Amino acid sequence: MVSVDYELRKKVMDAHIHDTLKYCYQCNRCTDNCPISKVAPERYDPRSIILSSFLGIKPSVLEAEDPFALWGCTICDTCDEVCPQNIELTEIFAILKNMSIKRGEGPEYYTQQASTIYENGKAIPMQSAIERRRDDLGLPKIEAPDVQEIQTILNKSKLNVILDKNKEE
Ligand code: SF4
Ligand code: SF4
Questions:
Q1: Are residues 149 and 119 located together in one domain of the fold?
Q2: Which of 16, 27, 52, 64 is least surrounded, with the fewest CB atoms within 10 Å of its CB?
């Protein structure tokens, strides 16, 4: 039996700024035009994410066995552009991804990458080998980021809390 999570439904409906989600008539245009669905139709389907969010069917979006079912989206915005009902699907996916991370369900590579940025102020840390190579190629020096400043900004978004406390209901 499918159980409906009204909290999930309310969060998605409340957060959707233009309140157009309820006008989705499941035409499938988003999925038909999604580049990810084209290469991985069994694993990623934006139309069904929208349907499950609207209905509050949590296991299909937040507790899916395959995290790719939610995280496969590259936020290319194609679905937003082709939706005849002007539904901003990617806004909804961002809400769901944030919920997924708070529940500790996000793919490990995302949290690892976030930790790297938090600790080093950039996605690819400064490395002496890279600097030597750049010198050899006559490329200009890369300025080291102000890690503390970046951490201050990230702390405002509570990334530090999310990284420390990966499981939060
Ligand atoms: S394209 Fe828009 S209306 Fe059609 S299924 Fe996708 S979200 Fe719903
Ligand atoms: S934004 Fe995501 S769901 Fe929409 S078309 Fe691009 S990859 Fe597919």
A1: yes
A2: 27
Interval 84-132: pLDDT, tens = 999 889 988 998 998 888 888 888 888 899 999 999 999 998 889 999 9
Ligand whose nearest atom lies closest to the CA of 29: 1
Ligand 2 centroid distance, CA of 148 (Å): 34
pTM, two decimals, is: 0.77
For ligand 2, is residue 53 a contact (CB within 6 Å)? no
Residue 63 lies in a domain: yes
Do 94 and 117 lie in a common domain? no
Return the residue whose CA atom lies nearest to atom 8 of ligand 1. 24
Distance CA 56, CA 5 (A): 5
38, 68, 70, 75: residue to mutate for ligand 2 pocket, most atoms within 8 A of CB: 75
Q: Are residues 120 and 90 in the same domain?
A: no
Q: Residues 5-21: pLDDT tens digits? A: 877 777 777 776 556 77
75: Cβ below 6 Å to ligand 2?
A: yes
Statement to judge: residues 86 and 144 lie in one domain: no
